[in-house]
Amino acid sequence: MDRKMQEGLRAVGYIRVSQERAARNGYGLGAQEADIRKHIDYKGWKLVEVYQESGVSGYKKDRPALDRLLQDAENGRFDVVVFPSIDRVGRSVKDVIEIDSFLRKHNVDTVFLREGVDTSTPTGALYRNIMSSVAEFEGRLIYERLSKGKREKATEGGYIGGWLPYGYVKDGDNIIIVKKEAETVEQIFQWKSEGQTLQWICDRLNGDGIKTKRGGKWQVSTIRGILKNRFYTGRVEFEGTFIRAQHDAIISDLLFRNCNE
Questions:
Q1: 198-207 vs 220-227: helix crossing angle, rounded to 10
Q2: The dihedral sign for the CA sequence 5, 10, 44, 130
Q3: What are φ and ψ of residue 102, in 5° steps?
Q4: pLDDT one-digit tens code per residue, 132-141
Q5: Of the candidate ranges 47-51, 139-143, 191-195, 224-228, the one whose mean pLDDT is the lowest
Q6: pLDDT tens-place string over residues 30-85
Q7: What span, in angstroms and rounded, lies between the C-alpha atoms of 251 and 261?
């Protein structure tokens, strides 16, 4: 008799969303956990734990909850792990097979609910490989669509995400200047153009009680980073070239050049 037909097996679940937006609008953590609990209850297994990963990509290697699940599997804490779907495990065939093989090595069976796959059977193992290939293909299509959209937006000088420097803040789809911070940026460039050293500028800002973007003290490296950042001239870098962006400049090209010659 297949061991999954036996009642009383120790079972765990694993749920993951890559973005909070997906958690709210798509197959979120709550829905995933509900499906897992329903399946485990139907099988008559004993639920040990549901491992949860929020805001973590399927491509990301560093997944704390998954790492803990694998460690617990190695320690013999459970007999079967239930995943909502194959793409919750990983976006590449290699990762899915490696994770599943690790679990099997430690006598842990896997179930993928959406695909109806039980990898303790030869048919299930084959189907797992096929479906993980499909998940990898879909993942690449999504990545290519996102990359294309970012390229198009970048060529138009639009904001494509990432860290915004001191002096700017995001307001919806727009980037706006923070007046007080912009005044500090202008002063930094002005002092540098007058021949002041980075250490002098750093000490002056700290002495005046002006805080950094994160509310801390100024460091020489922070000042240097500001002085080298062409974002302040109203430009963004795209494929190695600085192009005119849609956000407003804080300093002129002339002042930037004077400070960086």
A1: 110
A2: negative
A3: -60, -45
A4: 566 666 656 6
A5: 139-143
A6: 889 999 999 999 989 999 999 998 776 655 567 889 999 999 999 999 999 999 98
A7: 16
Q: How far is residue 255's CA from residue 253's CA, in Å, rounded to a whole number? A: 6
Amino acid at 261: E
Q: Residue 234 is which amino acid?
A: G
| Of 74, 80, 70, the residue nearest 10 (C-alpha) | 80
Query: What is the amino acid identity at position 247?
Result: H
Q: Which residues contact 43 (CB under 8 A, 6 or more apart)?
A: 4, 7, 9, 11
CA distances to 55, 87, 89, 138 from 21, in Å: 9, 17, 19, 19
Phi, psi of 247 (to 5 degrees): -85, 160
pTM: 0.47
Amino acid identity at 203: D
Q: CA-based angle 202:204:261, to the nearest 5?
A: 55
Tell me the one-letter amino acid at 1. Answer: M
Which runs of consecutive H residues, i.e. helices, occur in the chain? 20-25, 29-43, 64-74, 86-89, 93-105, 122-155, 179-193, 198-207, 220-227, 253-260
Place of tokens 């805080």: 211
Contact 127, 93 (CB under 8 A): no
Mean pLDDT value of segment 235-240: 68
Q: What is the 3-state secondary structure (H, E, C) of 89-130?
A: HCCCHHHHHHHHHHHHHCCCEEEECCCCEECCCHHHHHHHHH
d(CA 133, CA 118): 17
CA gap 57, 48 in Å, rounded = 25
List beta partners, residue 53: 16
